[in-house]
Design brief:
The structure is a homodimer of 634-residue chains. In chain A, 63% of the residues lie in helices and 4% in strands. Chain A has 634 residues and is mostly helical. The first copy, chain A, has 2 domains: 165 residues, 2-Layer Sandwich (Transcription Regulator spoIIAA), CATH 3.30.750.24; 408 residues, no CATH class.
């Protein structure tokens, strides 16, 4: 005993940290992993701190003072480019949400201004998105039909937007970005793919010029509706639609081949709208089976703050829409902001983004806008057009203002079929076959999560599809925690390293010793499993050595990888200790980590097992054991 | 490059295993962690295998052939002891479930016989339990009142028992013991404590001899009901009750002080019933405000198979009761069986136990029994009385049969107040203050999970309390997966060991090198966190060394503890690689485990980062890096 202690490295048995210290550290890791207040800690309170704090919370004060004409040239170009995309997209997505088309234009005027002040991504371009538009149409449409009572429907959409904004702001203020983390990438891919498929099929309504259509949103109902109304099909509409769609898809193809021609595909929707308007104006297309958007009034966003509807009979539905769309909008916006920031090696603060999105939707809901976020298509165009700061959003916003004040009536001739073609073309780009195949190749469970979202959205409904996918991702996490893999370690020849014997088949066994590495965490859900599994390892080890000589005499549990343990886990270790003792097998614990060690001390595990059974490395444990074995023999 | 490769230990870059191999291994770990068919694998098919299989599935064939008189002596004594407890408990718990008292006796006759055949615990004594009895009364009582339609109520209880049995059997056959694993120990402690508190307070009804009482089961309603009906209080009843309760508590106290006097407390409830019967028979107690049980017919269990009710209007409620009580019964029974087996260094197969419990409840529901499991109190008595095999259940069953055939009418004089005292005394023993304090001391989150169950059950309702507690335990697991702690490693002096710098403050830093150990798993929920956290580590490291000299030039990510990674996790590692590259920091990956390495190869991560950046240990990575740094300088 005494000799062992001299030679071996010391395990730290210090007293556990206080509860307060542990709690503080846990809360910090959970809610403030990016340590946002680091910059203030060194300073004394004073003018500089106030200035820094203002800059921290309102990012425009950080970049505007250093803004110059050179940067503005870039932003001006980018801003005009995204404005030319924002007009057709705004009208199309409003149409998708069963809202008056002008609402789509309003929604590209106010929210970008707010985002420019509070947002901290340099590349995001703000506007409505297809998935949320459809979700709003479905969910609110179930309660109030937009045909029967368009005003109430519109007001409920504003209310849902308001709630979504409040929810997003709260998430940001409470630093609950962790919720967004649970919308995993496979979930988003599947959800987007399913939604895009659905929207594509729905747009066949516009392409064929149908007047009657199902309000349901599963693939089966939509397809049935298209083929049952064959007598309403208008070939004029279909021809125009297919021409537009072909043109749009060609510009997309062009962008792929020649990335520097991105502006062709960026302005193509605007070209389609303009050509469509001219065509329907001169050819009186509306009299030949091609429907048009209809009257669009001149003028800026009217106030809608007094239309926010708190009637208790509509609260459940608006709240539901707000929670789902708010979360999806955040997940999409933040993920896109982050991925573009990464290309420039910059960072985006998720929690600040949530506040920015939230404020922009609250103010939006007061000024006749519906839910907006940073959609992929627009942001990509903004990035490619060379935007430098959020100023490009302000430029876009000013363009929209001019449009609303001067040009709005011109767009009333836009044929619906052109909008359908624009939406279809955008949606075809959102089905990410390559990513889905990548998931299939690398991780089958991620593929399953993705397909649950895809198929759920396409064949059941958007909210169920989303929930199925998120649920499956959570099940995966829980399953992991219930069955953290253990492995048998062996010694790599000519080294002091112990590695997984399955991964490194050449490792050597030490006779009589079974070294196991436990997975993390050792929680209630896994404790039965761990006990069973350890017994099986011993059994298997004994089976291999048929003879009686090298039967397991010493079990080493390597806890290096175990970050967290709960009381049930510690109970289990105590039980394992007892069980092994009854079979006269020695148990050694290797390298328990800080949190684990603290709980072992508090629960008197260390007293029960003995400090002499806890080691810093496997080598020490084996040495100590062979020493005690040899002394036993003497 | 070439010199490095010669000296360092080789990382295994073999081709990934096939999907089938991985899936098979995962399914095995998830559903067959105990490898139940190991014993059959070596044998050829034939008589021996059939015999072994029969013995495996029907354990009685394993122990009965070797059974002898010496063992029977022990089991006989234990069986008689638990029978004397089963009679008062059966009547009391049936009363608690608002069932005719005779059902409680029936339930201690048939199910123990079935369990003796299929069960594989030697110590469990079968019978009804308080928590499930109350849960049945509440949930079915909400749909059908036992006062208005006692027959329908009774039939629904049989139906719920039938469904519970089917559910339990299915769980066992599908090897879904993993579901039971999610009822953690703190949840059970809290749930039991809350239920026991509630039942204790409810029994004040019996003690005070009240006739009117609330059907609600939260502490507030129960207390209000007791104090609002003060005019119904009967002092005679209260005096008798308090005497009985004092006696019962004294025998429990005696057992604690003198464990070998356990039989005193085991038979005390029977004594109370006997004394109560005599007292109420001779003193005509029912005429002095003390209510009695009333008519109990002679005769064995009537068949109830044709009373199982599949009426669609009752299916939801019976199914709900079945799922909740079935799961609680399993969790309690298996946990208790396991903990007693552990004392004798034996094992209990959870999945086989589920099938045994399930069959016993299915057969029970056909023979006028309600839900049974292996309750703690009875099993402890059985164990202490020295039972050797499941034969003690058969002995108890025969005793019950004799009681039903001969003695049943005698018990009709049992005063309700005696039953209340018996239940109260049993419940007081179920509130495990010491365990709750232990949880508080060792793990505050486990304490929270426990208290959510306790307070939820006591103040809201039993099912909500249970769900709150289980939900919180799941949130804990998900939170863990969202924020797996990383730590900075330092070298322990005079060794090759790298350990957590926070845990071992004496470790040395290597200038320019930042070694981080990642926690497991690296999943979608944690990937943003891990990226942010690594950037913060670099920031902190640079802050410490104010000067420019020892700024981080090389980041090592030790993945030894990471057992599982998903596509989002791998994306994140690729992103980290890009970010570091942009800051001209070298990234090395240390010791990726089998699953992680396979996914890294499949997703071409290895190609992107380069095989020369992946090492088997930290030492190798540092050597390689200093080598490449020194060659750069030359």
């Amino acid at each position: 005993m005494s000799i062992e202690n001299l030679t071996r490295k010391k395990v730290n048995f210090d007293n556990p940290r206080s509860f307060r210290a542990t709690l503080k550290s846990h809360l910090k890791e959970t809610f403030f992993p990016d340590d946002p207040f680091r910059q203030f800690r060194k300073e004394k309170f004073g003018g500089r701190v106030v200035k820094k704090a203002v800059q921290y919370f309102i990012p425009i004060f950080e970049w505007l003072p250093n803004y110059n004409l050179r940067l503005f040239q870039f932003d001006l170009l980018a801003g005009i480019t995204i404005a030319s995309l924002a007009i057709p997209q705004g009208i199309s997505y409003a149409e998708l949400a069963n809202l008056p088309p002008i609402i789509g234009l309003y929604s590209s005027f106010v929210p970008p201004l707010i985002y420019a002040v509070f947002g901290n991504s340099k590349h995001i371009a703000v506007g409505p998105v297809a998935a949320c538009s459809l979700l709003i149409a479905n969910t609110i449409g179930e309660k109030v039909s937009h045909n029967d009572d368009p005003t109430l429907y519109l007001y409920l959409v504003f209310t849902a937007t308001f709630f979504a904004g409040v929810f997003q702001t709260l998430l940001g203020l409470l630093r609950l970005g962790i919720l967004v983390d649970f919308l995993s990438h496979p979930t988003i891919t599947g959800f987007m793919g399913g939604t895009a498929t659905l929207i594509c099929l729905q747009q066949l309504k516009g392409i064929f010029g149908l007047k009657h259509f199902t309000t349901k949103t599963d693939v089966v109902s939509v397809l049935r509706s298209i083929f049952q109304n064959r007598d309403e099909w208008r070939w004029q509409s279909a021809v125009v639609g297919i021409i537009f769609l072909t043109f749009l898809q060609f510009t997309r193809f062009l962008r792929r081949k020649r990335p520097n021609l991105f502006w062709v595909s960026a302005t193509a929707p605007m070209v389609v709208v303009a050509v469509g308007c001219l065509f329907s104006y001169f050819a009186h297309a509306d009299k030949h089976g091609i429907q048009i958007v209809g009257h669009l009034n001149r003028g800026l966003n009217p106030l809608s703050i007094k239309h926010i509807n708190f009637d208790s009979q509509y609260i459940p539905v608006t709240l539901k829409v707000a929670l789902i769309t708010g979360l999806i909008a955040l997940a999409e916006g933040i993920a896109i902001g982050r991925s573009f920031a990464l290309m420039k090696n910059e960072q985006v603060d998720g929690n600040k983004e949530m506040i920015a999105f939230g404020l922009m939707n609250i103010v939006g809901s007061f000024t006749s806008c519906y839910l907006t976020t940073g959609p992929f298509s627009k942001t990509a165009v903004n990035f490619n057009a060379g935007c430098r700061t959020a100023m490009s959003n302000i430029v876009m916003s000013i363009c929209m203002m001019l449009t609303l004040l001067l040009l709005a009536p011109l767009f009333s001739y836009t044929p619906l079929v052109a909008l359908s073609a624009i939406i279809m073309s955008a949606m075809l780009g959102l089905i990410d076959y390559e990513e889905i195949y990548h998931l299939f190749k690398v991780d089958k469970f991620d593929f399953l999560i993705c397909m649950a979202g895809f198929i759920g959205v396409a064949f059941i409904s958007m909210d169920y599809g989303l929930m199925m996918s998120v649920g499956l991702a959570m099940v995966r996490t829980l399953l992991y925690a219930a069955r953290p893999a253990t492995c048998r370690l062996g010694k790599i020849q000519d080294s002091y390293l112990y590695r997984d014997a399955e991964q490194y088949p050449g490792v050597t066994r030490i006779p009589g010793v079974l070294a196991l590495q436990l997975g993390s965490p050792v929680y209630f859900a896994s404790s039965n499993y761990i006990r069973e599994r350890i017994l099986r390892w011993i059994q298997e080890e004994n089976d291999i050595s048929n003879g009686g000589e090298s039967i397991v005499k010493h079990v080493l549990l390597d806890l290096s990888g175990v970050i967290s343990i709960d009381t049930t886990g510690i109970e289990t270790l105590i039980e394992i200790h007892k069980m092994l003792k009854a079979r006269s097998i020695k148990l050694s614990i290797i390298n328990p980590r800080l949190d684990v060690m603290e709980k072992m001390i508090r629960s008197h595990f260390v007293d029960k097992v003995g400090k002499q059974s806890i080691f810093l490395c496997i080598e020490d444990a084996i040495e100590a054991s062979s020493f005690s074995l040899s002394t036993q023999k003497e």
